[in-house]
Amino acid sequence: MIRDLFAKKLLLFCGTGGVGKTTTAAAFAIRAAKEGKRVGLITIDPARRLATSLGLDSLSSEPQDLSKQIKKELKFDGHLSALMLDSHDTLFKFLLKVGGKSAHDHFRDSRLFEIIAGNFAGTHDYLAMEKLFELHESGNYDLIVLDTPPARHTLDFLDAPDTIARFFDDRIFSWFMTDARSNSLTEKLRAKGAKAALRILEKITGEGVIKEFVAIAPYIYQVKNSFVERQRVIQALLRSNDAGAIFVSSPTDLARGEVRPFLEDAKRQKIEILAFLINRSLRHLAPDAASQHSVGDTIAIENYQQLRFLVEEEEKNTTLVRELAGGNQLVRSLPELDHDVHELQGLYSLAQLL
User: Fold this and answer.
1) DSSP secondary structure code for residue 241 in this structure
2) What residues have CB less than 8 Å from 313, skipping those under 6 apart?
3) Is the model's pTM score more than 0.85?
4) E strand spans, the chain
5) Would you call 65 exposed, middle or buried from its count of C-beta atoms within 10 A (0-12, 13-18, 19+)?
6) Which residues make beta-bridge pairs with 331?
7) How far apart are alpha carbons 66 and 146 in whole angstroms?
């Protein structure tokens, strides 16, 4: 039952683009809050769809309490906050907390901050994990619902801790990241050699950039272990019995075989698959065989037959999903609606269909 999922601490809503994943995640969060849970809803999708789904103009990077607003429209016992990840803000908070004001200020004053926070491959994913850690450690939520970014390999962002650990442990990078404040002669010699090498690199990369790297290297050294360790905590939570993934798909995605890559990712990441939600189902439009509707306008009959064909394909693909998953995952279909959902009452109505 859907209510069994409310007992979890962290749920990942995954899926490719255009299947209604963000709307479904928001509907689920409202349903969980309606059941009395303290829910934190977070999106790392930069397209700002979550704010639209909640009927808001925008979301900030800090949890925005929507409980009072929801209680005006719904009978509501729980608590719901929502936010959208902001890489810069999350990194600033992290640096201040684990590195102190000095590390925070040095990073903010460096031009390299834009490279690290905005351009370094995967930074958004790394900091999404940091935001999850922050919300989890706050103790303010019974359940955190994460709307992941749309991607074919929907769980790639969970590679972030391993990727950043490899980056920090790389021999070349560790050479340049030597803690120059160490009293060790070896460390000082390494720092001197690193600076000589960096001067050569500066001729290629541009004056000043490498000097800035040398200036903030000790602070990177200072915070790297905390960053990696916090990521490990969230990885452990994601792989525990308190968490799991919900895959949102559509009849079209089922036909394209989009579930198979997700199953492979989940197995590789050791993430439990809890449910499959088939959004925009057509079953309600053609629930019975076309032969039962042989009386009527010829065009109407033909249209019904075409719809029934699509429904039968959907049912076959749904059966295949169950077989591929090989478990007792919940499978639910949500009907194709005749309107977009972009306000709280519509989200709650959609949640009821779960």
Assistant:
1) T
2) 251, 255
3) no
4) 10-14, 38-43, 64-65, 79-84, 143-147, 243-249, 273-281, 330-335
5) exposed
6) 276
7) 17
- Specify burial of residue 299 (Cβ count, 10 A radius: 0-12, 13-18, 19+): exposed
What φ, ψ does residue 61 adopt, rounded to 5°? -85, -5
Domain assignment of residue 147, yes or no: yes
Q: Could you tell me the two tokens for 304?
A: 């019904």
Residue-number span of the structural domain to which 81 is assigned = 2-158+241-352
One DSSP character per residue, 32-86 reads HHHTT-EEEEEE--TT-HHHHHTT-S---SS-EE-HHHHHTTS---SEEEEEE--
SS3 353: coil
Closest CA to 110 of 21, 220, 196, 224: 220
Least confident of 45-54, 120-129, 309-318: 120-129
Establish if 163 belongs to a structural domain. Answer: no
pLDDT tens, residue by residue, 277-306? 888 888 888 887 755 555 567 887 888 888
Domain annotation covers residue 264: yes
- pLDDT for 185: 45
Q: Which amino acid is at 263?
A: L
Name the band, by pLDDT with cuts 50, 70 and 90, for residue 174. low
Which two three-digit tokens encode residue 194? Answer: 């690193």
* CATH classification at residue 32: 3.40.50.300
Query: How many domains, in total, are found in the chain?
Result: 1
Banded pLDDT at 169 (limits 50, 70, 90): low
What value does the CA radius of gyration of the chain take, rounded to a whole number of Å? Answer: 24
H helical segments located in 206-239: 209-238
